[in-house]
């Protein structure tokens, strides 16, 4: 399958497994899962046919492991704007985590911290390079360092998705370090 087709399928999955399942008649269960056959039938009936082989290739080849297949079910690993409980256990984070953004967001972050915006959680990375890559999607990236150990000690709960993205409800300004 060519790269453009992989990207189109991945974006289609993101839209319908994270944000608008109802648009193609999907009903995610409480943890975000839907049967693969139901997804494939819904996509086909909305003029975007995906073969099972293509679906598996997109899931397996996605560099960020955005999707997971377990048995006959599929879901997005994180990033939902629809109500789902990913059923991830509370986990002690590493001492530091990182968040990529752009400079025009810094004034709001300094005041309010990192908020989930239209998602359920703030997404954090274990390394600067990943955070830089995430921030670069919207412009010249700025990488913020989050004192995850301090947050955890203060009672904030962290979870980690299957693809290694750390999730937290909110990062208060006092736990954020800015680059020089």
Automatic annotation (TrEMBL):
Family indicated by similarity: Belongs to the KptA/TPT1 family.
NCBIfam families the UniProt entry points to: PRK00819.1-4 (NF002014)
Tell me a GO biological process for this protein. Answer: tRNA splicing, via endonucleolytic cleavage and ligation
Work out whether the entry's keyword set contains NAD.
yes
Entries under Pfam families matching the protein: PTS_2-RNA
Enzyme class, one word?
A: transferase
Q: A GO molecular function for this record?
A: NAD+ poly-ADP-ribosyltransferase activity
| UniProt xrefs under InterPro entries | Ptrans_KptA/Tpt1 (IPR002745), RNA_2'-PTrans_C (IPR042081), RNA_2'-PTrans_KptA (IPR022928), RNA_2'-PTrans_N (IPR042080)
Protein's recorded name:
Probable RNA 2'-phosphotransferase
What task does this protein carry out? Removes the 2'-phosphate from RNA via an intermediate in which the phosphate is ADP-ribosylated by NAD followed by a presumed transesterification to release the RNA and generate ADP-ribose 1''-2''-cyclic phosphate (APPR>P). May function as an ADP-ribosylase.
Query: Which keywords accompany this UniProt record?
Result: NAD, Transferase
Task: Tell me the gene name.
Answer: kptA
Q: What is its EC number?
A: 2.7.1.-
């Amino acid at each position: 399958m060519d790269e453009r087709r992989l990207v189109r399928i991945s974006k289609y999955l993101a839209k319908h497994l994270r944000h608008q399942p109802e648009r193609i008649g999907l009903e995610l269960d409480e943890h975000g899962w839907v049967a693969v056959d139901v997804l494939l039938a819904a996509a086909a009936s909305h003029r975007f046919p995906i073969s099972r082989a293509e679906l598996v290739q997109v899931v397996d080849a996605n560099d960020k492991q955005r999707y997971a297949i377990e048995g006959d079910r599929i879901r997005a690993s994180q990033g939902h704007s629809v109500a789902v409980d990913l059923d991830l256990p509370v986990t002690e984070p590493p001492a530091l985590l990182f968040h990529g953004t752009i400079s025009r967001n810094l004034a709001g972050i300094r005041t309010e911290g990192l908020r989930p915006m239209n998602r359920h959680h703030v997404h954090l990375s274990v390394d600067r390079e990943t955070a830089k890559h995430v921030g670069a999607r919207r412009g010249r990236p700025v990488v913020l360092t989050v004192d995850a150990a301090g947050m955890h000690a203060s009672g904030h709960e962290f979870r980690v998705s299957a693809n290694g993205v750390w999730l937290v409800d909110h990062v208060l300004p006092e736990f954020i370090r800015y680059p020089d």
